[in-house]
Amino acid sequence: MTPLAPEPILRAALYVVHVAAYTTRNWTYADGWPRQQVYDLWEALHEVPDLISRWRPDAERELLMYLDEYDRKWPTPRLREMYQRHQEHGGPA
Predict the structure, then answer these.
(1) Which of 15, 37, 60, 79 is paired with 51 by a 20 to 30 Å CA distance?
(2) Cβ(38)–Cβ(28) below 8 Å
(3) Which helix H or strand E contains 7, and what residues bound it?
């Protein structure tokens, strides 16, 4: 059986996915929502649930690569910052 990510990483990664879900839901409620940004956000995050459910020693590096990929393109939400704050403090970033 493949191990899950360690608890602080698991919680922080799931928090980032949660924020992405409600953020994109809110964007689609308005006219002129940012389609490319929605695409880029989910392109960066679609592998995260699978990654945290089959954790390995170098997996956090891969996870951060996905977050950074989005952050290089868009000013908000800041995925890496949100992840790191939630991991360090265990609460909303």
Answers:
(1) 37
(2) yes
(3) helix 7-29
Name the CA radius of gyration of the chain, rounded: 13
pLDDT tens column, 4-43: 999 999 999 999 999 999 999 999 988 888 999 999 999 9
11-14 contacts: CB < 8 A, separation 24 or more?
11/86, 11/87, 11/90, 12/83, 12/84, 12/86, 12/87, 13/48, 13/51, 13/52, 13/63, 13/83, 14/52
CB 80 within 8 A of CB 71: yes
* Token code pair at residue 12: 């922080």
